[in-house]
Every structure is written in C-alpha cells, then in structure tokens.
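Hi again,

Forgot to attach this to my earlier email, sorry! This is the prediction with flavin-adenine dinucleotide bound. I've pasted everything inline since the attachment limit keeps bouncing my files.
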Amino acid sequence: MSEQLQSPADPSGAGVVIVGAGLAGVQTAVGLRELGYEGAVTLLGDEPHRPYDRPPLSKAVLLGKASPESVVLDVDYDALDVSLRTGVSATALRPWAREIDTEQGPLPYDALVVATGARPVVLPGTEDAAGVHVLRTVDDAERLGPVLAEQRDVVVVGAGWIGAEFATSALDAGCAVTVVEAADRPLAGTVPAEAAAPMADWYRAAGAELLTGARVARVEDGAVVLADGRRLPAGAVVVGIGARPDTGWLAGSGIALEPDGSVTADASLRTSLPGVFAVGDCASFPSARYGARLLVHHWDNALQGPRTVAANILGEEPAAYDPVPYFWSEQFGRFVQYAGHHADADTLVRRGDPDAPAWSMCWLREGVLVALLAVGRPRDLAQGRRLIEAGAVLDPVRTADPAVPLKAAVSSG
Ligand code: FAD
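Structure tokens for the complex follow:
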C-alpha cells in the first residue's frame, strides 16, 4: 500500500512530522525515540497548551480537584529532541510534494503521522451561542468550571459517556441537572437495553432528571426548548452528542477517508498515501479479531496504536494492530469498564443483578468471549480482557455465576 521511510539511519532531513499533539501524537514521538529513530521529529498541535490528558477533564478538573497543569503529559521534549510546536494548525496536505501547509508556512516530511483526534459534534444553530458548551479541551473545562461553581441550572444534551460524566460532576457541584436524550435510553448504540436500564436509574438516584426520547428544537437565552414544546430552564447547556474525526484539513489531499470521516488505515495503521500514517481518534483500522473496521475513541487506543506506527516508520514489520479496545468511565459514583467489541447477534450473559452496586455482562460469540462490561468489578474486567485477547471459550453457566472468577469459567471441553 505505501512505501516505508527509506532508511531510519539516513533520513532526508525532513524527518517525521506528527500532526496533532494529543496522546496519540505524543506517544508516536516517544515511541520513535524508544525504537531508536534518530531523524528529526516535529510534533505540531493547534492548541496553545503543552500536550495533556483528556480523561480528567470531565472528572477532577471540572470540579477543581485537579488543576489544568496537573493533566499535562509528563514528557521532556527537549531530552527526546522532539520539536514541539504548539498553537500551529496544519491546514493542508500535499502528498505529491511530501509536505503539509501550516499557518506558519509549508513543512516537508519524510513520514507524516495524522493524529488530529476528534472534534465534538455541535447542536446545529448553536455554534456561537453564549452559554452553550462542549467538553473536549482543557479550555472547555476551564470555561465550565465557573458554571459549576455558580451552581446554575444545567441542561446536558446527550446521555453518553461525556454527558454522564459531566452530569455527575455538575451534581457534585450542587447544580440542578436535566439530561436530554433523543434515544429511549442512555448509551444507546453502545450498550444494550439490559445494561442501559439500570444506568438510567443511576441518573435519577443521583438527582438528575433524565428525559429520554426528547429532542432539542432550539436553545434560547436561558432555556432549552424541546421538540414537544417543553421549555427547560438552562443557566448553561452542555452538549455531549459525540465526536467526529478531525480530518477536514485533509480535504483535497487524496487520502482515503471512511464515510464517518475517519482516515482509512490498514492493519499497520498506514493510510492510502505513501509515507502517511494515522492513529488515535482520527483513524479507523480493520480488526481481524472482530471482522470489522473499528473507529475507537478511547484513551487506550491512543496509547497503544502509536507503537505500531513508530515501528512501521522504522521499517520494522510490525504485527497487525488488532487490540482489544478498552474504555473506562467514572459516573454517578461507579467505575464502569468495557473491553472488546460486541455485535447485536452476540449472546449476552449477565453476571449478577444489574440493580446491585456491582455486576458485569459478557458477550459470547459461538462461546468465545468477545466483550465485557463491568460495573464495580475490576477483577472481571482484568481477567475478561486477557480472556478476550486469548480468544477463550467460556462455559455460559459458570460465566453467569458472579461467584465464579471469570478465568475459572473457561470451558474445559
Ligand atoms: P486528541 O486527544 O483529540 O488529540 C488530537 C490533537 O490534535 C488535539 O489537540 C487537536 O486540537 C489537534 N489537532 C486537530 N486538528 C489539527 C490540525 N489540523 N493541526 C494541528 N493540530 C490539530 N477515554 C477513556 O478511555 N476513558 C475516559 O474516561 C475518557 N474520558 C474522556 C473525557 C473527555 C472530556 C474527553 C474529551 C475524552 C475522554 N476519553 C476517555 C477519550 C480519550 O481522551 C481520547 O480517546 C484520546 O484523547 C484520543 O487521543 P488522540 O491523540 O487521538 O486525540
């Protein structure tokens, strides 16, 4: 598909340019040096800040329990001889010239890594509306801090992961919280109804009002108006309705993109263009493990994928990137973890009562464990993740018994 960088020991001088200074971009730079790459490495990020970690933004940072400085990634770019350029956007890619355009002029590359992450989906018509927020960046979290501190009435649009975490923090801060969800349950499309039903109860028990099957018609000054005419008082509105790969700047480059906007990467995270790789929230890749192309918006993917990219740039023959996706969330006093990838056709096996404080669910495909959702059962998650990686076949009866450790549910037959 694409040629390798000619020789890591004999770079043309342009070296590796990494666009996007989030976790995936930083890990690519670190991985290149760890694997012995000696050429130039330039890490370009459009945010004005040193690269930082996003998960604490919707948790400790929002509540003022962690400072924005504390989430900065602990990497010594000087010691690594990585040229970190913050506050600079890449605006175009010209593969035929092996260069990108930036706001500060063109930049040549021997190898290019696209690690531009994802951008939150906004409510149409509210792009510049005062009091309407998204939560993706440290600047977003800093803008939302005062909203929480002033204990305003908050309307959260979307009962997904970010919506749930924001609602949790807003309730902790003493805000009145209403969550508006267009689907009939939280996390629709991510977890099945069996798991979502108890999750809906978490909102209510924590004191949030959860309105499902509710669509936002418009946002007015101080209110959210629903399609059915209901008017919800809103000192602030937080929109958490998903994120899309941030790949608009690649328009005209000829790079292959999927309909969801993700860069089409192969099993080694190479793109359709020579010497161009893609990793993290902006890239999708084929998973032989799951027989599907995956677009994974999880921290662990941004941590693991760069190793494959770095090895590839160095001309090593990396193993196919085919991880067991892993995600965690902290919401309503619970620690929720998910590993793997399931389809509707997979067999769901419950471990414990979903109304209890701790339970988990497994998905089996022809007996093989393919995914697991754990609430307050980190041991299930740890064992399950290893079993998924190993392609273990589980005994469904033993799997359904929460007193049996998952690893002891492996089928002997
Ligand atoms: P990003 O972190 O988005 O980094 C991409 C960077 O590229 C950004 O800084 C962007 O501004 C920059 N960029 C974009 N376009 C350009 C351009 N043209 N030129 C230059 N720079 C550009 N995952 C979990 O597993 N568990 C969690 O609990 C969890 N919590 C989260 C909480 C929040 C609030 C958010 C937003 C995400 C959370 N995630 C969580 C997801 C996880 O943080 C992401 O999957 C991860 O950050 C993806 O890393 P990335 O480097 O691919 O992309």
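The chain has three domains: 16-119+243-313, 122-239, 333-409. The first helix runs from residue 23 to 34.

That should be everything now.

G.
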